[in-house]
Design goal:
By secondary structure, this protein is α+β, with helices and mostly antiparallel strands. It has one domain (6-114): YhbY-like (Translation Initiation Factor IF3), CATH 3.30.110.60. It has four helices and four strands; from the N terminus they run H-E-H-E-H-E-E-H. It has helices at 6-16, 32-45, 56-70, 110-114; strands spanning 23-25, 47-52, 73-78, 81-85. The chain has a four-stranded mixed beta sheet with strand order 1-2-4-3, sandwiched between helices.
Length: 116
């Protein structure tokens, strides 16, 4: 699976903002049952939030393990919430759109950015 570009990741973060966590990983960690549930939820929704009740280093390891085993893409990791995306060609619910650009406007200069 190709890696998400920055604009795709930003678009998915915006869509994930309103989502509630659909899967919760407790003290037992990432078990086969939880992994199956995540896989089923990804097939249905394509973009999901997962709440992980573990230490920070463990959460990062869990995120990489989920993405490696399910061939999914990590979108965001904030605190105890992980956001994961895996496109489903059958459902194809989420269409990633490019962020609109302002036409005809010049980018801000360093001086203008410093005044903000």
């Amino acid at each position: 699976m190709p890696v998400l570009t920055v604009t795709e990741r930003l678009a998915l973060k915006g869509r994930a903002h309103q989502l509630k966590p659909t899967v919760m990983i407790g003290n037992a960690g990432l078990t086969e049952a939880v992994l199956k549930e995540i896989e089923l939820t990804l097939k249905l929704h394509e973009l999901i939030k997962i709440r992980v009740m573990a230490e920070r280093a463990d959460r990062e390891a869990i995120l990489t393990e989920i993405c490696a085993k399910l061939n999914a893409e990590p979108v965001q990791h904030i605190g105890k919430i992980l956001v994961i995306f895996k496109p489903n060609p059958d459902a194809h619910k989420i269409e990633i759109r490019q962020m609109p650009r302002h036409k005809g406007k010049k980018p801000l200069t360093k001086k203008q950015l410093g005044n903000r």
